[in-house]
Amino acid sequence: MAWAILLWNVVFDRVIVVAGREYIAAAAQAAVNPAGPFANMDDWMRPAVTRGFWMATAAGGAVLLVGLTAVHRVGRRAARAAESLALPDNPR
Question: Does the residue 15 lie in any domain?
Answer without folding.
Answer: yes
